[in-house]
User: Which sequence fits this backbone?
């Protein structure tokens, strides 16, 4: 018999990475950190690598312990994964596989959609309203899993904890997953996080070391949820999916957590500078609580190519199910300069995508 993948697998397109950035400072397509790992992280990594002939701790207990203390939860309420993307696949297998149902925003975070399809579950998407999750509409959809990405990717918009709590108590979904990959860049992460809700219902909160902590290349993230839910995910996980080098890098960054608050401030204020650049060039920018901004541009292909020629890679909205926009990561200071130079000679926005209300002043 000729070899064929399962029919629903054949319908899934393999992941398409963005074009490699022409320059490091101009790498604004993947929402990575603008800074490389700290000396403390590198030292921890070197020491973990020296024990590379040994399997890693399957549950990353030292890291779980440190994270549990930080979040005021029990270690049994944390599961560490090979990036939060792995945890999303585990959620799909455990709670939606074989004809289950999932509800996401439209546009969704791509991994939420793909993980649903590969386990042969059905995806319902609910359009954003003014760029924000339409929680009342999503709550009416009966599903096994509801995904809230908070702040959302690709828009950067945030729902309050009160809104998430309201959703949790009204939703017709069995499990609510709140993906907080970008929560550190929001105005008040402590107030906004859904972690205090983990015992108020069936809710799982996802966090990653890929964004503020700048460990995207190590692949490590975690999930916070009640202990029973964690146990279900442990049934389907590969025991050694998180290597010891990644565990040690994450542990070092948790122990040096305070040092990341200056970086957070820098990214938040540079996000404002990045938004101003686009607004002054006549584009409208969706107000963002993340480390990127979504810009409404009209003809995105022309603009994406123009930026590329000027050393800057941005993510075209068509690759994110939101054509007519570009998503731009908050860059380094040098990257901001590249962007400013590229914008000076950029094609004018088409009239329908100009800012409807020009911001006052021109600081
Ligand atoms: C970047 C991102 C993640 C992080 O994924 P990792 O696998 O931890 O690198 C998770 N969710 C969203 C919405 C993201 O944009």
Assistant:
């Amino acid at each position: 018999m000729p070899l064929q993948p399962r029919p629903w697998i054949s319908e899934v397109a393999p992941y398409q990475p963005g074009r490699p950035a022409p320059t490091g400072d101009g790498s604004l397509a993947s929402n990575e950190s603008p800074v490389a790992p700290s000396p403390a992280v590198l030292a921890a990594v070197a020491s973990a690598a020296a024990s590379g002939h040994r399997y890693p701790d399957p549950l990353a207990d030292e890291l779980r312990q440190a994270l549990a203390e930080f979040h005021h939860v029990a270690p049994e309420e944390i599961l560490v994964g090979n990036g939060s993307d792995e945890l999303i696949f585990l959620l799909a297998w455990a709670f939606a596989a074989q004809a289950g149902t999932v509800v996401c925003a439209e546009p969704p975070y791509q991994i939420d959609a793909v993980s649903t399809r590969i386990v042969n579950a059905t995806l319902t998407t609910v359009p954003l309203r003014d760029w924000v999750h339409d929680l009342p509409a999503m709550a009416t959809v009966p599903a096994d899993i509801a995904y809230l990405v908070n702040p959302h990717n690709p828009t950067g918009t945030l729902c309050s904890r009160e809104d998430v709590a309201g959703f949790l108590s009204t939703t017709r979904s069995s499990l609510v997953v709140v993906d907080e990959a970008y929560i550190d860049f929001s105005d008040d992460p402590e107030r906004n996080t859904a972690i205090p809700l983990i015992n108020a219902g069936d809710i799982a909160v996802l966090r990653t070391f890929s964004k503020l902590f700048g460990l995207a290349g190590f692949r490590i993230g975690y999930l916070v949820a009640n202990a029973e839910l964690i146990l279900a995910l442990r049934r389907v996980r590969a025991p050694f999916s998180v290597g010891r080098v990644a565990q040690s890098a994450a542990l070092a960054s948790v122990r040096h957590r305070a040092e990341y608050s200056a970086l957070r401030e820098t990214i938040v204020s540079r996000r404002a500078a990045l938004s101003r650049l686009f607004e002054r060039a006549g584009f409208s920018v969706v107000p963002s609580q993340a480390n990127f901004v979504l810009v409404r541009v009209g003809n995105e292909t022309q603009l994406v190519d123009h930026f590329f020629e000027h050393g800057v890679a941005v993510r075209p909205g068509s690759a994110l199910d939101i054509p007519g926009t570009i998503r731009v990561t908050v860059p380094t200071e040098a990257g901001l300069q590249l962007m400013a130079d590229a914008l000076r000679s950029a094609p004018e926005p088409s009239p329908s995508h100009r800012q409807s209300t020009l911001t006052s002043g021109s600081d």
Notes: The two ends are 68 Å apart (CA to CA). The longest strand covers residues 143-149.
